[in-house]
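Entry 14. Ran structure prediction on the chain below.
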Amino acid sequence: TDTALCHKTVRDPPSISTPIWYSEALLGSDFSLSCTVCKYKHHRVQVSWSLAGTRLAQSSTLHTYQKHPDQYILRVRQASIKDMGNYSCSVENMEGKVADSKTITVDQ
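Output, structure tokens:
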């Protein structure tokens, strides 16, 4: 969903889009994933990231941040084999919860 085309009313649940569903990263390199949220302008949302169903927490190699009001980023530093898998971006507010996912392959 392009932010310019995002039209939500107060009762609409949020929706999310990710630019690509599959990506490759080189072993030892950094990579970032992006999640764009379409929501009613006055609604607050909670965004979380998970890998293979396990919620990710900030660490020395994982960093999450909000790039602008509708775009959320997960940055992985120094990718290793354990960083390979299916990543999900989940967005939740009082109107509902949605998730989108993408697969990352780490090549040597």
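The radius of gyration is 14 Å. Will compare against last week's run tomorrow.
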